[in-house]
Specification:
Length: 70
Amino acid sequence: MTIHINGKAYSLGEAEYISVNNALILHFTEPQKTTFAVALNGDFVGKADYDSTVVKSGDSLDVLQPIQGG
């Protein structure tokens, strides 16, 4: 199984699916203290749904952090 997070491919061996929360653990090397949003195949995923939302082979996650500006 291969998924993409912010364009980077992650190979997960023989797994059929993982939760969004577990995919985020793969992506972040350190615990995040900043706010971010997650989209699965272009659809927003609320934080309350990270454990119950399934990521399958070929899916794409986008992790978006806010940008300040004026």
